[in-house]
User: Fold this.
Amino acid sequence: MVSTGQAPAPSSLMLTLFTFAVVEAPVHGWTSSLVLGLFVASALVLVLFIVIEMKVLNPMLDLSLFRYPRFVGAQLLPLRFIGIEGLNALDAGILMLYFSAPLLFIPFLSAMLTRFIPVGILSGLVVDGCCIKPRINGDRSPSESVNN
Assistant:
């Protein structure tokens, strides 16, 4: 095993090549030589990155995370927005911001609220507001809105 301190160059290069390929694909076409070349180069650098990460004691990315489908799905979400939904890179980034921004505020807000409101009551209020009240008012629940 190699000690820590490896340069992040392979991961940065791989992500740059891959992102550029995805962004340029709607313009040049998914089968253009530019886009295919970028994908191939990205794949080669990815293999190099995996080899390096498997040899270091403290990897930059724990590769065992890819065993979990939810982790993989979350990583591929921007590609779906660009490739399938047809959004441009800026719109896909803004949409991802909507998903990630609450992660900055909800823990802080819930920590503040638990000083004054017991956790059980606070959890009940969240469930009531998100799942029960919409059904009473005839609105869809959050899961029904997503699925329909």
